[in-house]
Write a structure and sequence with these properties.
By secondary structure, this protein is mainly α. The protein has one domain. The chain has 6 helices and no strands. Helix 4 packs antiparallel against helix 5, helix 4 runs antiparallel to helix 6 and helix 5 runs parallel beside helix 6.
Amino acid sequence: MSESAAEMLDPAQAAELSRVIDLQARWENMRDDPARVGAGFSTPDLQGRQRAYETFRARLAAYTARYRAAQVPELTLNTPDRVGAWCRAVRAVFRLAEPGRVGSDRPTHAVEKAYRLADRIAARLKTSPLGRESPPDGIPSAVRDLDAVIRWCDGLVGPPAPVGNLRPTDEAPGPRDQVA
């Protein structure tokens, strides 16, 4: 879902979608916990992960049925521009979510997912990771945390290259570049 599509949701739908997003992030954070890589999982850990996944899938199915939402696969969130785009869409959903609706007031797992994705990118690009704030205590602090991740991602992406300028500006034009 794009940021512009998220901005067109009504508040009740945004609140429900914010819960789906947070449940998905909870399951993904459990699945991709860097502290657990290579350490293995105990039976209770695996059962907890399975329960988290089943809770997410049930909520997603209910959301999809209620709002007739098409299930669109999420982009692979492995580059700063994609993580930034995901954070923008999630931020738009959170801003529209009705305050006080069950599950929409403390989206801690979605914010943790954003930071986890940023950490992966920082490690891969060998750059400084983004500092974390305390877990969000509500939608406004979650939006602020997502804003921080967006700014960090935007700083890594840099400005787009000018269209049509494929060689360095200090290079002299070659013979094929001269107009007859």
